[in-house]
């Protein structure tokens, strides 16, 4: 039981700045973009300045203006790099979900015991995904900064949406396999809850504990799967 997952590929992200041809030039360009992201984590978007980036990347100041015509183009490409790297990490959740379903190939999902096995497997997969996400706090800071900047910069909207859209599409394909009547709606519910819980857990245990997150996820998955199985 497999499904073709239609998602955006990392190599389709379009960068705006000057293209680098030589290997050393590509390394310097990437170093500038990675330095920009580190500054975003440490100081926020307001801290992104040519001199600060040059110092962080340990490159001449002129290098930042050689590859990027202005600070907006530099910030855009830094977020493009982040989105490109993020796409490479979005497949794990989809693969885990499909694997859990594949183990039950041909089984009667209406059977309470089999149904419980699937709910448990999917809940654990989502909990592990959330744990991995919040463990990389810096990337979550960049992610939220990216979304906020996209509200100000229309050029970033499409790229900001790509990693999240890939995850939603993967979840939707899973619900299609189950025969859900509303796989897209189900996917948006699941992904929305995952993103909400990630943010709450990042804020600390006093906001939401992992135990409550797991209990809530299991309840949501159980109800959505029950609807899909009943058809």
From TrEMBL:
Residues 49-68 bind DNA. InterPro entries: Homeodomain-like_sf, HTH_TetR. PROSITE patterns: HTH_TETR_2. It comes from the Bacteria. Residues 26-86 form the HTH tetR-type domain. GO terms for molecular function: DNA binding. SUPFAM superfamilies: Homeodomain-like (SSF46689). Keywords: DNA-binding. This is DNA-binding transcriptional regulator YbjK.
């Amino acid at each position: 039981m497999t499904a073709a997952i239609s998602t955006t590929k990392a190599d389709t992200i379009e960068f705006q700045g000057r293209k680098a041809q030589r290997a050393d030039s590509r390394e310097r360009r990437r170093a500038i973009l990675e330095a920009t992201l580190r500054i975003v984590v440490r100081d926020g978007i307001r801290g992104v300045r040519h001199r600060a980036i040059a110092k962080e990347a340990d490159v001449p100041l002129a290098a930042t203006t050689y590859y990027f015509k202005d600070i907006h183009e530099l910030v855009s490409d830094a977020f493009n790099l982040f989105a490109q790297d993020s796409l490479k990490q979005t497949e794990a959740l989809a693969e885990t979900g499909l694997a859990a379903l594949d183990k039950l190939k041909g089984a009667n999902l209406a059977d309470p015991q089999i149904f419980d096995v699937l709910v448990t497997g999917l809940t654990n997969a989502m909990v592990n995904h959330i744990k991995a996400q919040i463990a990389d706090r810096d990337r979550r800071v960049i992610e939220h900064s990216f979304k906020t900047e996209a509200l100000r910069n229309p050029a970033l909207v499409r790229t900001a949406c790509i990693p999240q859209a890939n995850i939603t599409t993967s979840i939707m394909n899973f619900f299609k396999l189950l025969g859900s009547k509303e796989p897209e709606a189900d996917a948006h519910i699941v992904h929305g809850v995952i993103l909400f819980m990630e943010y709450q857990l990042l804020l600390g245990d006093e906001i939401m504990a992992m135990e409550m997150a797991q209990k809530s996820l299991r309840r949501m998955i159980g109800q959505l799967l029950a609807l899909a199985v009943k058809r």
